[in-house]
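Dear support,

Our group has been running a series of protein-ligand predictions, and this particular one with shikimate-3-phosphate is the one our PI (initials K.S.) wants archived with full inputs and outputs. We had some confusion internally about which version of the output was final, so please treat the block below as the authoritative record. The input we submitted was:
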Amino acid sequence: MTKKVMDYKQPALKGTLTVPGDKSISHRSVMFGAIAEGKTTVSGFLLGEDCLSTIDCFKKLGVTIDVDGTNVTIESNGIDAWKEPTEVLYTGNSGTTTRLMMGILSGTNLHTVMTGDASIGKRPMRRVADPLRQMGAQIAGRENGQFTPLAIQGTQLEAMDYTMPVASAQVKSAILLAGLRANGTMIVREKEVSRDHTERMLRQFGARVDVVDGVVSFEGGQKLTATHVNVPGDISSAAFFLVAGAIAPKSEIVLENVGVNETRAGIIEVLQQMGANLEVKIDDETAAEPTATLTIRSSQLQGTTIGGAIIPTLIDEIPILALLATQANGKTIIRDAEELKVKETDRITAVVDELKKLGANIEATDDGMIIEGPTRLHGGKLRTYGDHRIGMMAAVAALITDGAVEIDDAECIAVSYPTFFDHVDAVLK
Ligand code: S3P
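Confirmed final output from the archive:
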């Protein structure tokens, strides 16, 4: 772990950035390319540690993957040509890799063992293992499949009609990917719609999928056909600069090629509700994953309430939205966000404890937090808990604090945004 001291002295932020590729879509591009027969090409791939873990797992399954900058090529003869790995599949810090792989591996004819880092070892996996078991999957792990290491004996799966108890794209995607190898008609019902990159990509790879009013259905046993995937910039990475530009004085930051899929773009709605000076220029609405240029300028902000159906569309942005709320006039209430407790770390506790160290007026609740603003923040020594998004929240806070902010672990940020500090430097001038 490398400490980092950030003493930025409240600069104006100016510049144009292209944030790295979307993490969720990058993972899926490799997974789909490995399942499909033929040669899949990917551009704009995120070279973050999480996505590199996904590549590493598929290499161990015998899939040929070539990385050339942000262009990735995946060559596969389909799932039935994968080989049984002699080694444990290591998923690092990545919940998406671990959970989606559970769904994919359950329907193979292979025995596999998966494990990840200390954070993955604490994250709940029964939310995926239990529905997969209803389809016939054979999954073993600590506490009856709740925790890694997990051992999966692939088998023939049966389709099911499943109603999601939690709004989770990872759970939904694991089940949908298992459904590709199942007999019968798969139906997955969501009360609140979580990110739909898997559904979109299934279609891109030639599968016939229906989505009507939060109900996804398709025939099991469909084959995927290799294609090209263009990964847009990650709105969850752009979020840090959207907030930085809004709260730093005399600032203007332009973010190009940001993915604005409506199941991911809740932060745009919240910024607008809070009165942020934000311009959204959509590039191409018809793309498989639409993109936009976002321009953010220093803003006078009002507190707001964030809860209900919007939560899954901005779940990863809540740490940075909490920092934003410390600079808004009045009270911001974040509720219905108990899922934060099972992210890379417990993000309710982490955000509240760390922002308090900088002088924020913030309290934890059972399902979120309440923030009273505006508060002038001071410097301090913060913990990241090894969580990339807590590390970046601390770095953005450092841009507006009186005095320096130190973080205990700067490296964890490479999980999703390896060029983050280069981009901070680029807007500092
Ligand atoms: C992801 C889904 C979200 C999100 C995670 C990536 C995905 O998790 O927090 O960073 O790629 O499907 P849940 O689906 O568990 O909410």
